[in-house]
Amino acid sequence: MEVAMPPAFHQRLSLPTTARLPCIAEESAWRPDAGEVLSGALDIVGNVPGGSRRVFVRVYRTSREHFAVLLPLRGLASACKPLASLNLRTCAILQTSHDEFRVSPRPLEGTTLCFKSPAGSPPVALWIAALQEPRHQRGRCPGSPLLSVHKMPALLEEDMQPVC
């Protein structure tokens, strides 16, 4: 799992929840044209100081990419720099309870993150469906394109006759 966290990650998350204003990203419209499949607020539990912190998560899936971007819940557009991005092609997603799930690196490349779906956020089942790779693509190599296989009709060889 590729997790890119800036040095100020824990500083940004250590602000009290009551001091935060909704991020511009939270108010913006869903963007399916950009490959966005789901967005909403989630609580990161266990890996942050103070027990849990709320972040805004956007999940994107295109023909070549599948990733999630974690954004702070802030009021200023300039403060909405991503806290982290997760390459979901190399992650395993596991539901741990009715309102929690875990995102783990498959080859143990990074940190496991545990998320809780707060009231008003999409249900855990929707998050898991958006974060997991589609079942028909699991066996293929990451980054390889999907190819359609079409059978071509057999060609019969005929005796060639000289052309005058």
Structure description:
The longest helix has 8 residues, at 124-131. A hairpin with a 2-residue loop joins strand 5 (91-97) and strand 6 (100-105). The chain has helices at residues 9-13, 24-27, 124-131; strands spanning 36-45, 52-61, 66-71, 84-87, 91-97, 100-105, 113-116. It has a seven-stranded antiparallel β-sheet. 10% of the residues lie in helices and 29% in strands. It is mostly beta strands and 164 residues long. It has a single domain (9-135), classed as Roll (PH-domain like), CATH 2.30.29. It is built from three helices and seven strands; from the N terminus they run H-H-E-E-E-E-E-E-E-H.
Can you tell me the CATH topology?
A: PH-domain like
Tally the structural domains: 1
Assess the beta-strand content as a share of residues.
25-35%
The CATH class designation is Mainly Beta
Shape: elongated
Counting helices, strands and paired strands, the structural category is mainly beta
Order of helices and strands: HHEEEEEEEH
Q: Please give the CATH architecture.
A: Roll
Strand order of the largest sheet: 4-3-2-1-7-6-5
Question: Percent of residues in helical segments?
Answer: 10-25%
Instruction: Indicate the mean pLDDT.
Output: 72
Number of strands: 7
Please, what is the oligomeric state?
single chain
Spans where pLDDT lies below 50 across 5 or more residues: 1-28
How widely separated are the two ends?
Answer: 67 Å
**Largest pleated sheet:** 7 strands, antiparallel
Query: Helical element count?
Result: 3
Radius of gyration based on Cα positions: 22 Å
